[in-house]
Amino acid sequence: MIEAIGLGYSYPDGTTALDGVDVRIERGERVALLGPNGAGKSTLLQVLGGLIEPDAGSLHYFGETTDADSVRDRLSVLTQNPADYLFNPTVREDLAYGPTQQDAPQRDVDRRVEAIAERLGLSSLLSKPPFRLSGGQQRRAALASALTVDPEVLLLDEPLSNVDAANRSEILDLLAELSNDGITLVTSTPETELLPHLADRVLLLDAGGSVVASGPTREILTDTELLADCNLRPPQVVRLFDGDDPIPLTVEEARRRLDGS
């Protein structure tokens, strides 16, 4: 779906954000970009989504093109700031904006908006101004607006940042459903606790913007020395069961281990 080779990018002050990054995203994968704050995760996500031009390297989309704009209908990027998506007078108009720009028939636009709004619990909020929503509601509305274009690939920049427990659980459940529907998910996060729920494969970045490891989520999260080298702490469950074989990654896995099931 996306292949990047040798990506490089520096900020205007000369600070290196990405240094020779290689990424390959296969159809239907759930991939997480993990790293400490300042590791270039958000920058990498925006480069992969075609929002930022890299200083070096190449990008290919769907095995067809190097032009992200030409596949914009198949690719959606959700940035950390909901305001990037919520700028119309009502939530309904925000959700309709993407498919309208695709010149979708009005009947199809309405169908998409209603379906996505119901799926994310936004049906009663469609007539409200986005600025009147709570933080969690804004996050869900922004995600809904990214989904109404019916993307094949969804790139999410810390989608659970500053989200309360109830909304966090709802968003995690929705992302699991989207994955089951075949949507390819690429998510950036500094939170190791979330990874077992977000990704099957992890790209680990260090503070210099380099990929230092890539592998299955379990493999990365149980390598405590590797995480420590990147100034990251493994999930609490991993720390508690360090030395077991295999090490549980979630509370649910730990409970089954203790129950002997």
From TrEMBL:
Superkingdom as given in the UniProt entry: Archaea
Any Pfam family hit: ABC_tran
Lineage, opening ranks: Archaea, Methanobacteriati, Methanobacteriota, Stenosarchaea group, Halobacteria
UniProt name for this protein: Energy-coupling factor ABC transporter ATP-binding protein
Keyword match Chaperone: no
Function per UniProt: Probably part of an ABC transporter complex. Responsible for energy coupling to the transport system.
Protein topology in the membrane: Peripheral membrane protein
Annotated coiled-coil segments of the chain: none
GO cellular component terms given for this protein: plasma membrane
Compartment(s) of residence: Cell membrane
Keyword annotations from UniProtKB, A to Z: ATP-binding, Membrane, Nucleotide-binding, Transport
Family as reported in the entry's similarity comment: Belongs to the ABC transporter superfamily.
ABC transporter domain sequence ranges: 2-232
